[in-house]
Give the backbone structure.
Amino acid sequence: KKKKKNDIAKARAEGLPTATCKLSEELATNPFLRPDSPEIRDLLGMKTATDAEVFAEIRARKDKF
């Protein structure tokens, strides 16, 4: 995750696009695509919630960010 952040910062500094990435990278780093992740569920305190509930909570938190 830190490497991707550094890669993005470098690309931006060089005026290069940052939107293009591999699907595997997006799946590994985008919390919206990982509502089943035990790590994310633990952080949210939603271990027994449905994927839809976890997704909705992630979305709600993003809207307040």
Observations:
- The mean pLDDT is 92.
- The chain has four helices and no strands.
